[in-house]
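Notes for week 9. Today we move from apo structures to complexes. The key idea is that a small molecule is not decoration. When we ask for a structure prediction with zinc ion present, the ligand SMILES becomes part of the input, just like the chain. The input block below holds both the sequence and the ligand string. Read it once before you look at the output, and try to guess where the molecule might sit.
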Amino acid sequence: MLRARTLGIEAEHLIDEMHTEHHQDFSDFDLSFDNFHTTHSSENRDYAELIYRRLRDGKHIEVRTIQQLYDAEKSMFLPDRFVKGQCPNCRAEDQYGDACEVCASTYDATDLIEPRSVVSGSTPVARDSEQYFFKLEHFQPQLQAWIQDQGRVQPEIANKLKEWLDGGLQDWDISRNAPYFGFEIPDAPGKYFYVWLDAPIGYLASHKNLEQRLGEDWSADLTPDSSTEMVHFIGKDIAYFHTLFWPAMLHGAGFRMPSAVYCHGFLTVNGAKMSKSRGTFIKARTYLNHLEPDYLRYYFASKLSANVEDIDLNLDDFVARINSDLVGKLINIASRCAGFISKHHEGQLASSLPDPAAYQQFVEASDTIAELYESREYGKATRAIMALADRANEYIAAEEPWVKIKDPEQAHTVQGICTQGLNYFRVLASFLRPVLPRLGDKADAFFNEHITHWDQCHAPLLAHNINRFQAMLTRIDSKTIEAIKDEAKSDLNAHV
Ligand SMILES: [Zn+2]
């Protein structure tokens, strides 16, 4: 809202623009959604009002008078982000009214030292204001039980929640004075729902939107006894809203609670917070202007685990990892074998494998790998796949088809070795499909087939015509990384 004001445009317009940009970025990174909805929707307004009314009728909302900063020049109460001053904790200058960016402490805007209004520059005054509070403590027992259920939240988050619960739950201010972007509280003119009340409700709104688009009835998904899974993936900074307020709001309004909430850590670049001046504040679009999404998808997958740790995009390590794992190991299997099949056997694979038992071992790894994906251990999954790629390369290196091909009598042996190698590649490319969908498509084109399920690799591809091999992924040059950093720098300079 502050940004829209600065740019002199409507907040709705800014939201629409961002919505479109985000959707395009996701789609160009090969991330698809059954429904990509917005929290600024009529469905969300309806649900926010419904949940509020049910909480109010259940006596979980309390109206209290508190002090808030008021800009007398502009005749308005100031939202947290409309006021700046010195941090009451570390005295850092120029901090917003809700949290300090230097020492990370949170506080009330009225605690700021030497506050000033961002709108008029005047010194705001404290005035009485009625606000609406959600009685979170009413849900202490339900939250306690929910957290203790196995697999609802990660152990690190469960420990943090236990601290919060043991410390006693505070009432939560769910209202903000106008002007505020969002939904007005139905029975309180001039008061708006705090963004973190209606933001998670957006999940229900999106569910409703898709339900209506498809003409279905999914109301049973939301009842307390529903067996439908409701799983949230979020950043660790918003764990508080998703693991305390959200389940409590749902329960208080007669809806089911989430099946699980999984938190990710933050992403750093070269070991530090993204920095505009160092050229490490890289936007999704800037990356896409230079490289295919598969590279970054692989790198992130190789670093992600089921826990809440931060992950680092180290640009040197990124180049080294992609060049060694994807190009040096994975693609290498296919590129070493394909030429012999097209040159000496008219593109036809052998009619049997020289070592069917070894092939079987590759196929049987699928259970372990599926389990790793399922338990969100993506790093372990990629390592298990790369270990198989090492074995495939060792096989080819030991069989030396490039030596054997010199002896015309060994032509069929070479066809067998290369058929074995290419079938290894086929299995590995399909294991990696969730991470590398484009590589999967290229492998399909190369093998003249369409893989939609891992089970299709149970039987090897034999006596089958394949296409001429074309480089599916190429090495990343460090110059490309420099170009990305340069663009990131100039891009941000132009917009600041
Ligand atoms: Zn501070």
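The first strand starts at residue 61 and ends at 71.
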